[in-house]
Amino acid sequence: MKHMNSEVKEERTSNKKRIDLFLVPIVLIAAFLNLFKIWTDEYANAYYTAAVKSMLQSFHNFFYASFDPGGYVTIDKPPVVFWIQTISAKIFGFHGWSVILPQALAGIGSVLLLYVLVKRTFGVWAGRFAALAMALTPIVPAVSRTNNIDSMLVFTLLVATWMLFRAVRTAKFGWVLAAFAMIGVAFNMKMLQAYMVLPAFYVFYVVATKITWKKKIAFLTTATALMLAVSVSWAVVVDSTSADKRPYMGSSQTNSVLELAFGYNGINRLTGNTSVTGSSHKQPAQAQQQTASSETKQTSNSNAESSQSSNQSKSSSSQKMQAPDGGNQNGMFNTGNPGPFRLFQKGLSDQISWLLPFVIFSIVGLFAGVKFKGPYTAKQKESLFWLAWLLPVAVFFSIAGFFHQYYLIMLAPPIAAFAGAGAVALWNMYKQHNGWKSWLLPSGILTTAALQVYIMSPYVSSIGVAPIAGVGALGVILALVLAIRKERKNSVTNYLGVAAMVVLLAMPAYWAMTPIIYGGNSMLPAAGPDSSSGMGGPPSTATNSKQSGFNGMQPPGSSDSNSSSNNQMQPPSGSSNSGQMPGGSSKNNGQMQMPSSSSSKLSSSKRKSGGMNAEVNTKLLNYLTKNNTGEKYLFATTDSTSAAPYIIKTGKPVMAMGGFSGSDPILTVSKLKSMIKKGEVKYFYLSGMGKGGQSDVITWIKENSKEIPSSKWQSTSSSSQQGPSGNGTLYEITLK
Fold first, then answer.
1. Is 636 in a helix, a strand, or coil?
2. Are strands 636-637 and 655-656 parallel, antiparallel or unpaired?
3. Which of 189, 199, 615, 678 could disulfide-pair with 556, CB 3.0 to 4.6 Å?
4. Which of 445, 446, 429 minimizes the C-alpha distance to 437?
């Protein structure tokens, strides 16, 4: 800590041409958190992994990001990240880890970029602390260890930030264009979420550049036009292509990328109107549970150990899970209830908010004495940039109607930047006895420790009392001692400052390791002792925290098939069969049993986290393969959950008739008749799921088909399961 008193210019000069040895362990920590054991995830997010399998087979599938090898429907996101994943799978072979690898490397890259961005202006120690805070922010490695998009999105936006900072330093317009074009690339990763940083880009460029207002407006207008052109480039190509020459745009209601971007993946996230059934009314929170997005569909986790004892399995199997709704104190999917303190509520605070009080005090210190009309120092200008990133994103997550916990990774860069820059600034104010400013450091330490105790308190049954009491006691003691020793200058005070930072980062570091310790969830990544459930929030009452799924329920392929058949999840009250969770059955009085496949066991060395139906029914697969007489599709089913494992396993086309959730208006009866007559498909697997806009098609299938006896395709032990390996019916239709 004593080195933090050095001038920024001297630190930059001394470290300019040599490797920062302090950065090496930080990068190694990030590499461990992001990479260790990703090779155990065999399926990752099966919805996206199936798309990569399909994209490997043809350029047509690659360009459109087709979910299935037959080019029937796309996934619900733009293609750029999946292009990168497909290239990775092409180089390293098709594996779960090879589609996760790009995101893991992006997570490490974000740590390095933040170091570079913060170090140049705030000093090397600020860069180190910022990089370490980024690496240890729990949601960052939790997301980066999956094939979801957000880690790559954040990395791309940080690249754009580096370009913008360079544009200001060099006064070259080309870098401005490059920065905004990079945001356009990010748009083609996750659409409107990329635009969350635009306020920061506009404010910073206006404040930081020393050119006339006329030039500022002209440059920003031109850069924005380029950004918009890059953003919609793929969408325009797709939407202008005849519908019969490309896959249907998944999760849209009009087969349009632009509708998907500004509706389902855009404004609807703010309003909570996440219905994909074509209705315009806002769904109640309970119904949103089933239909909201690709990440919500595949909710089971496969990171449970097959070696769990039978008494643990029986204990968890007897439990029921109430689907989260607006009445739950943790909100839908543990995202809390909208309000100004939402980020401090359970389920969100443990993902991102560990250092928020310290950040608030840092912001106060960094902007202390700033006059509205300037002039501004370089530190103040860049602080304004990070503040303009932090505040709009925090406001969005405080009021949004629907999002998942792992979207909070968007807050990680500004929080980490302020943690690093603030640590140095507050320390210098403390050492220099700058009046009231010298109290910001001990106050920040005390309030941050208090928040961390609050965050951990619901997890006392999982982590014990000791770490909670330890953080609280040490935080109070260190804050008080620093306050008492405020007038003294010696090495003891320096060590106290170091100890305080260690205490504040200790529990975020533990939380960041929980996906490794307890197992992660590739569909709904979240950190915490219950990280394998994908629900974040306080721990469940399962007997073993390593059990996966909701409340510790066993996933497909569990070693105890008898007990797993009794696992039941109570759906939201008032929901219809079509609103059930994926893989559910119209039977069982609205209760959903978690499936378990006896036909394909989960290896102890490989984990399949591909959703509730991630297992392949070998008997069904053999039957369909044997009886295929040249049909394009191995079989058709209502939605992507049932189809994905078979695409991954075989690389053969499987038709998700209603797209991701089963409710996309893709297929009509007349179109299906035509496909059957052409010999493109003849087998249909139907459960009680995913009817939505496909009800007429499903009714016609049932009325015009021959039911295949379950004894021919379903093993006796799987008769109580859902999905292609359980409850449901296999039909055959042949038309002449």
1. strand
2. parallel
3. 615
4. 429
Statement: residue 429 has pLDDT above 60: yes
Q: What are the residues whose beta carbons fall under 8 Å from the beta carbon of 245, sequence distance 6 or more?
A: none
The mean pLDDT of 357-369, rounded to a whole number, is 95
Q: How would residue 586 be classed by pLDDT, with cut points 50, 70 and 90? A: very low
Q: Express each pLDDT in 492-551 by its tens digit.
A: 788 888 899 999 999 999 999 999 999 888 999 999 998 776 656 555 433 333 333 333
Cis peptide bond N-terminal to 375, omega within 30: yes
CA distance 657 to 473: 58
Q: Enter the tokens of residue 663.
A: 């409710």
Strand partners, 63: none
Q: Tell the burial category of 361 from Cβ atoms under 10 Å away from its Cβ (0-12, 13-18, 19+).
A: buried
Residue carrying structure tokens 């490059």? 178
Q: Please write down the long-range contacts of 703-709, taking CB distance under 8 Å and 24 or more positions apart.
A: 704/733, 705/731, 705/732, 705/733, 706/731, 706/732, 706/733, 707/731, 708/623, 708/683, 708/732
pLDDT band per the 50, 70, 90 thresholds, residue 369: confident
Measured CA to CA in angstroms, residue 248 lies from 61, 105, 245 at distances of 12, 31, 9
585 HSE (CA, 13 A, CB side): 21
Q: What is the 3-state secondary structure (H, E, C) of 529-576?
A: CCHHHCCCCCCCCCCCCCCCCHHHCCCCCCCCHHHHCCCEEECCCCCC
A 10 A CB-CB count for 718 gives: 26
Buried b (16+ CB within 10 A) or exposed e, 472-495: bebbebbbebbbeeeeeeeeebbe
596 — alpha (psi -120 to 50), left (phi > 0) or beta? beta
Nearest to 141 by CA among 117, 113, 111: 111
Check if the beta carbon of residue 497 is closer than 8 Å to that of residue 482. Answer: yes
* Torsions phi, psi for 600 (to 5 deg): -150, 105
415 HSE (CA, 13 A, CB side): 27
Pairwise CA distance, residues 521 & 523, whole Å? 6
- Mean pLDDT, rounded, for 466-491: 88
pLDDT at 331: 59
Q: Looking at residue 693, what is its pLDDT?
A: 62
pTM: 0.84
Q: Strand 568-570 to strand 592-593: parallel, antiparallel, or no bridges (unpaired)? A: antiparallel
Average pLDDT score, the chain:
81
Distance CA 398, CA 344 (A): 10
Q: Please tell me the predicted confidence (pLDDT) of residue 717.
A: 55
Rounded-to-integer distance, Cα 362 and Cα 365, Å: 5
Structure tokens at 390: 């932090």
